[in-house]
Amino acid sequence: MTIAADGRIRVRWTLLAFIVVVVGMGFLIGFVIRPDDWYRSLAKPSFNPPDWIFGPVWAVVYLLIAIAGWRTWMRESKSAALSLWVAQLAVNYSWTPVFFGLHATGYALSVILVLLCLILAFIVNHLREDPTSALLFLPYACWVVFASVLNAAIYWLNS
Predict the structure, then answer these.
(1) Which membrane topology describes this protein (predicted)?
(2) What's the distance, Cα to Cα, between the start and end of the chain in Å?
(3) What CA–CA distances, in Å, run from 73 to 6, 68, 133?
């Protein structure tokens, strides 16, 4: 095995690690903190999608987040850009426990709006240096805009 081949193997394992950790944590949180009777009893807007939609959408979104994070790690492993990526992921992971665990729709709305700001900051930060990572975050931004509107509607309908 040559050094170049060894480097490619390391790059692939790093990508796989990002995917496993990001997607795995997302699904673990979703598995541990599930919608319950409280959630089912909430008034929801007419545009609320069926529950089965969320898993596949988040699977794709988490995959894109992982790839963008991996690309950022490979380019700048000790940077503000990577800190921004980690921050958005931490805020992302905190929304489910706040909304479904604490039943705090108003606080969850605050969390998701902070998340949206972090996603947009990541996109802007990457536009010049790594436009591919910025593009990978666009579906994420769109989904979080939709989720923010949904969260706001649930909050409003149940306040």
Answers:
(1) Multi-pass membrane protein
(2) 63
(3) 18, 9, 11
